[in-house]
Design brief:
895 residues, 43% helix
């Protein structure tokens, strides 16, 4: 653009002062404290505004803000801030999860550093110690949420172990128990030998690990022989059968026979079961019901005994030479013993296979037969499936709904008991005579000698599954529950769609009489680095959003994350992109500063369109298109497209064009300048409102300075005004932009300094004639004076010609190279379009509009080629000199 700077133009009286540069560190904390103290984020359940509610996916009390949180919260805050500006009664409810295993581990590590264990304290004192840790050290993430700008209602903050939510947990447990949907049974569960507790599926991370696959021969010495393969040789000590498929001809004659189990002296049957895949391995599998979930099911079908051969720490308990060995010590010892007996048929090492690990301590998980509490998920999962199928809850993007159905339509019963002390203790008491009593929140537990409460606590996901309604006051009939349930949107990662979302759906529908917990579930992906690689400490590519906030500001961090947030897709980020977002915030700051210094007016009625200049009508028309596009993309949760539209409107239309086009008008003064000041103020006002949900801090600072308003947080969201749509103005300014852009391109190609002015004669302006002063100002062109000699000419599409006196300014060889490149491109375009039109099949089958478009492209390319050819022909031979200046002469330049 031109070199005119804000200080070159007259300042408006009583202009609000903005510093020369935006300093996020001086703004963010101050503004956030003002927002909270003013109550802008507080929701009023008694208002008559339409409700909009999001309950925040509760971060762990042990957690700190990582980049995944930053993405999740940025999306939620953007949605909430927009709805607030649209006049909704918005509730964004914050809180934390008690994070059973993670929190207990933190406190146990503290005790271990003092040479103690939780057993030294006892259960009651240990739980008190955990509450003390929470009060002193937990919840750091809440302060970090403030730094990001989360507009949550802090007066409604909840914790999954607070009194109200504990009552909700006990209430729903009692109801499910009474309805036969909670039961206690021996089942195979995920077990962590380090944490000494059962784990839910979501608490198990699967990785491809190197191990070995050992093929073992069972039987012999008069028994039939059969070969099985295993990656866990030590578990063969607990085998109680060998299974084959009933249709496998190789083994049909062996079904019902027995073979000797090596190393044990026990005899085990050969059974037929359809679970066996005859095409995998030998088609025969060892069956260890107490140590494998599939084997347990086979054992149940065939009445097989379940032999537990290791304890809760993974130590072998089977009598014999392996007793007392850790499972990983026993594995090679068992293989060696089998090898000595000649029973090892094959060994494959390394053998890569999926292995489950405790998500907290990374210990290899052991499938273990254990007496645990379960939720009978069948009817609950069916209801959760139907709620999405019948449209009560919509999943965005829609293609991820099939993943949801794949999970809920095939859900296993859910193990909800954990062998921990920190958490919601299971409200079941056992009597001395074998009595079992489940106690509700308003009931007294049994008293008397011999009554004891169940030692286990509930899975953390049990209480978080109640989050959308327990946080609103359930089981009581509260104003918040009536007003804000069902919640409007759940924003979460697709990676926990199955575990958390499905469980909230099940419990919400059950507790709330078939009413869904949220109307929409919008899913995002995980954050990756700029190369698409998953972030990992081992890769060294993990980013700390707090570090970005420190260095570039919360707005730049938020804008970077939001600009990559396509529904259901992973989000790539890099520090370079955060720097670019910071530059965008700075550019916005400078634009508003320019407006303030030049009297931009952001209040009152706009002049009627007929009184406005073409440029003013153009920018107002562009604004209407952007408002419409932003609203459309917001409703589709396409935040990346929202940010892209706003970025290009702000940078391309407002900063690069409208601000520059307004400078000559403002400098000239008069009525036209006053109208432009009003339009400039309006456009900046509306732009700041549109950007506020994504970048709240800088927009608040600028909007209050520009409008003298109290806050943009509760300012009205822009709405489309079709009366300002103006195709003619947009076409006219687009033509002006083409002329200016072509001249600038020519200047750049010739290496002209931006400040160097060149005499030029403009022809064929037509409707652009009134804009000639603007064209000259932006393109740095002087009027032709005496002695003007046209040494180069530009033919701009649309009929405009620009003749320039470039004596002493350009290089003929460079101009010839540029035109030759343009000619090649035009020839290629002609060839491609002519080939299509010469193809009878294309002309016959393509829609008429498509054929017409190809013809138009061909005609335009042919016109370009003619113009470029003429320009090349007019160039002097290389090395030609100008008589007047003694330098190389130049000829016509094409566009």
């Amino acid at each position: 653009m031109t070199d005119t700077r804000p200080e070159d133009l007259p300042a408006a009286p009583e202009a609000v002062h903005l510093s020369a540069q935006y300093q996020p560190g001086e703004v963010e904390q101050r503004r956030y404290e003002q927002w909270v103290s003013a109550g802008y984020f507080h929701a009023d359940a008694s208002s008559n505004r339409p409700p909009f509610c999001i309950v925040i996916p509760p971060p762990n009390v042990t957690g700190v803000l990582h980049v995944g949180h930053a993405l999740d919260h940025t999306i939620q805050d953007t949605l909430v801030r927009r709805r607030r500006m649209q006049g909704y009664e918005t509730l964004w409810l914050p809180g934390m999860d008690h994070a059973g295993i993670a929190t207990q581990n933190v406190v146990e590590r503290q005790l271990a550093a003092q040479g103690m264990s939780r057993h030294d304290l006892g259960r009651e004192r240990f739980v008190e110690r955990v509450w003390q840790w929470k009060a002193e050290s937990g919840g750091a993430i809440l302060g970090q949420m403030r730094r990001l700008g989360d507009s949550v209602d802090w007066s409604r903050e909840r914790f999954t172990m607070d009194e109200g939510l504990s009552r909700a947990v006990q209430t729903i447990f009692k109801r499910l128990y009474d309805d036969g949907l909670i039961y206690r049974a021996e089942r195979i569960i995920n077990w962590c030998p380090r944490c000494l507790t059962a784990l839910s599926d979501i608490e198990v991370d699967h990785t491809d690990d190197e191990g070995e696959l050992v093929s073992i021969r069972y039987g012999g010495d008069g028994d039939p022989e059969i070969v099985v393969a295993t990656t866990r040789a030590e578990t063969m000590l607990g085998d109680t059968a060998v299974a084959v498929h009933p249709d496998d001809e190789r083994y049909r004659h062996l079904v019902g026979r027995e073979v000797e189990l090596p190393l044990t002296g026990r005899r085990i049957p050969i059974v037929a079961d359809e679970h066996v895949d005859p095409a995998f391995g030998t088609g025969a599998v060892k069956v260890t019901p107490a140590h494998d979930p599939n084997d347990f099911e086979i054992g149940q079908r065939h009445g097989l005994p379940s032999l537990t051969i290791m304890d809760e720490r993974g130590v072998i308990t089977a009598h014999g030479p392996f007793e007392g060995l850790d499972r990983f010590e026993a594995r090679p010892a068992v293989v060696d013993a089998l090898r000595e007996q000649g029973r090892i048929v094959a060994e494959k090492r390394p053998y890569v296979h999926a292995v489950g690990h405790c998500s907290r301590c990374k210990t290899t998980v052991e499938p273990r037969l254990s007496l645990q509490w379960f939720v009978r998920t069948g009817p609950l999962a069916k209801a959760a499936s139907e709620a999405v199928r019948d449209g009560r809850t919509r999943i965005e993007p829609a293609e991820l709904a099939k993943r949801y159905f794949a999970w809920v339509d095939n859900m296993h019963d859910w193990c909800i008991s954990r062998q921990l002390w920190w958490g919601h203790r299971i409200p079941v008491w056992y009597g001395p005579g074998g009595e079992v009593v489940c106690v509700g929140p308003d009931e007294q537990p049994p008293s008397g000698e011999g009554w004891v409460q169940d030692e286990d606590v509930l899975d953390t996901w049990f209480s978080s599954a109640l989050w959308p309604f327990s946080t609103l006051g359930w089981p009581d009939d509260t104003p918040d529950l009536r007003r804000f349930y069902p919640t409007s949107v759940l924003v979460t990662g697709y990676d926990i769609l199955f575990f958390w979302v499905a469980r909230m759906m099940m419990f919400g529908l059950y507790a709330m009489g078939g009413r869904q917990p949220f109307d929409v579930v919008t899913l995002h992906g995980i954050v990756r680095d700029q190369y698409g690689k998953k972030m990992s400490k081992s890769f060294g590519n993990v980013v700390d959003p707090l570090d970005w906030i420190d260095r570039y500001g919360a707005d730049a961090t938020r804008f970077t994350l939001a600009r990559g947030a396509n529904p259901g897709a992973d989000v790539a980020v890099s520090e370079e992109w955060v720097q670019g977002a910071r530059n965008f915030c700075n550019k916005l700051w400078n634009a508003v500063r320019f407006g303030l210094m030049n009297g931009a007016v952001a209040g009152g009625e706009l002049p009627v369109a007929e009184e406005l200049s073409t440029v003013d009508r153009w920018v107002l028309s562009r604004l209407q298109h952007v408002i419409a596009e932003v609203d459309e993309q917001f409703e589709r949760f396409e935040l990346a497209k929202v940010c892209d539209a706003l970025y290009h409107f702000a940078w391309d239309d407002v900063f690069d064009w409208y601000v520059e086009l307004s400078k000559p008008v403002l400098a000239a003064g008069g009525a036209a300048a006053e109208r432009t000041r009003r339009v400039l103020g309006h456009v900046l006002d509306q732009l700041l409102r549109l950007l506020h949900p994504v970048i709240p801090f800088v927009t608040e600072e600028l909007w209050t300075a520009l409008t003298r308003g109290e806050t943009v947080v509760r300012a009205a969201w822009p709405t489309l005004d079709k009366s300002y749509l103006d195709d003619q103005a947009e076409e006219e300014v687009a033509a002006l932009q083409r002329v200016v852009t072509e001249v600038r391109r020519f200047r750049s190609d010739q290496g002209l300094r931006p400040s160097q002015r060149v005499a030029a004669r403009l022809g064929g302006l037509g409707a652009l004639a009134p804009h000639e002063p603007l064209i000259r100002a932006l393109a740095r062109l002087d009027a032709p004076g005496d002695g003007f000699t046209a040494t180069a000419s530009l033919a701009v599409p649309g009929g405009v010609t620009v003749e320039l006196d470039t004596r002493g300014t350009i290089d003929v060889a460079a101009e010839r190279a540029r035109l030759t490149k343009d000619r090649t491109a035009a020839e290629k375009e002609i060839a491609q379009n002519r080939a299509k039109l010469d193809n009878p099949a294309f002309v016959a089958k393509a829609p008429e509009a498509v054929v017409a478009k190809v013809k138009a492209r061909l005609a335009a390319a042919e016109a370009d080629l003619a113009r470029i050819t003429a320009a090349l022909a007019s160039l002097p031979a290389d090395g030609a000199r100008s008589e007047e200046s003694g330098i190389e002469a130049t000829g016509t330049a094409g566009g």
